[in-house]
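An instance follows:
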Amino acid sequence: MEEGTSNSPSDCCSTDRDYDIHQWDAREECEVRQILDRIADKWSLLVIALLEKRTLRFTELRKSIDGISQRMLTTTLRQLERDGLIVRTVYPVVPPRVDYALTELGCTLHDTIKALVAWTEANQTKIIAARRDYDERASEKLW
């Protein structure tokens, strides 16, 4: 190991990273940051997860996502469509029918989301314990 290289548990990446951390730069023009912001928000994750199994209509999505407003669902669907993650199909019938489905690209993202959910489920007890320990330490500092 090189001199000055940390061996602490918080150093979970090697010094020979295969990516540049600055690719996540928060600058407004940074595409990676913008895409991460979009796909990592709670509404997008839920929409992608729901569309994994089947095509859904707007009202089905809205009923399935507790707490989302009509406006927020509309905005989320438009952004996901713009990014090529979902496809919107309009049928020329009365009343109008609009279906939403994952694209091939959206399906690959869902695989990543499943891995994130699996990690969360596998580590939730550790995270709950860490939160409890933190809260205890924080409350002791108040007194």
User: Anything to note?
Assistant: The helical segments are 31-39, 42-51, 58-64, 70-82, 104-142. The radius of gyration is 21 Å. The chain has five helices and three strands.
